[in-house]
Amino acid sequence: MFTSFSTALSALSAHSTAVDVVGNNLANLNTPGFKSSVVSFHDLVTQSMGAGLGETQVGFGVGRPITLRQFSQGAIKTSAGELDAAIQGDGFLVVKSKTTNGNVYTRGGNLQVDKLGNLLTATGQRVQGWMGANGSLSTNGPIGDIVIPVGTLKEPVASTSFSFDLNLNAASATADTFSTSIEVFDSLGSSHVLSVDFTKTSTANVWDYSISFPDSDVGTPVTPVAGQITFDSGGKMIDPPLAGPLPQIVVSGLNNGAADLTMDWNLYEGTAARLTQFAQTSSVNANQQDGSPAAQLVRVGIASGGYVLAQYSNGQQLTVAQLAMASIRNPESLIASGENTYSLSARSALPAIGLPGTGGRGSILGGAVENSTVDIAREFTNLIVLQRGYQANARVVTTVDEMSQETISLKR
Description:
Largest sheet: 12 strands, antiparallel
Number of domains: 3
Helix content: 10-25%
Distance between the termini: 21 Å
Radius of gyration: 37 Å
Strand content: 35-45%
Shape: rod-shaped
């Protein structure tokens, strides 16, 4: 009978632990990326009474509960944060621990940038990934801190090529002209207007062209580059040919002291000619050049796929970094290390670090946050059940105490 005391006390301790777990779940109801835990009870060894053949078995109570964290998918909520990132599927963001400087793992994607440009979690851990350079990104090397180019000035890029997608009117009369222009940039980021004039010749399907540079921008006027464009009977350009040299204009002696410009006119996109001659009004459908002026960083955001994009004042967007993700085969073995992060335990499999969407890793959604997986209705139900269990075992203690008092009074 007196083992009932220890049996009931073990149950009181177990139910107290379970209530603590429920309380922690409810406390993190609104923690982004939080994964709720459940308690698993198990009984202790039983003792056989009588002949020892198991006809009568009395247990010794309940053991210390096992806490299991459930890494189920949380609801994805769109947010207004440009640096917010939500994981859809398995995997974790890799961050640096503030105490051990080793890697820890998190699902909380509400990120921020410090004054030095380091990409951090909401609690200050440095987010890990791959850094890009000059718009190119390689993910073959080791991961490291992601540093956002805060307040940087993007260097200008001198134009080296330009193109027009246009149609010249096949119904034009001899000496009819069509003109267009495009803005190009020198090595200092100054803009110049490059003009191209087309004139219909007396020969069928042949047009003269002239590429000119503004005389006011140079000390010595640049001689216009001239030539002819020939179309076949179907309105497709056949000369200059695809294999031939591209028309080129060379500009030297710029008044602002910039380096000389050498620009090619790209007449083909792959194998397709950019110029046509159909019986439609002469017009430009698109134009393009590869230069750009100096530009200020306007904003930085995380796009879907985990790309960190920087937008500049000239409208350009560059990929400056890529978030890394870790896949762990048995995430339930991870240890919660506080600040919404998890660290490896002795039972954890080694994390496989790679790109989002590869190797079984989930995808990253920009401008979104994963909600906590805590179900408030389920937790309140568990709380009621655990309270009733605690009350029932407390009643066992008082009952056994009354029985012991009755037993003691038998000798009187």
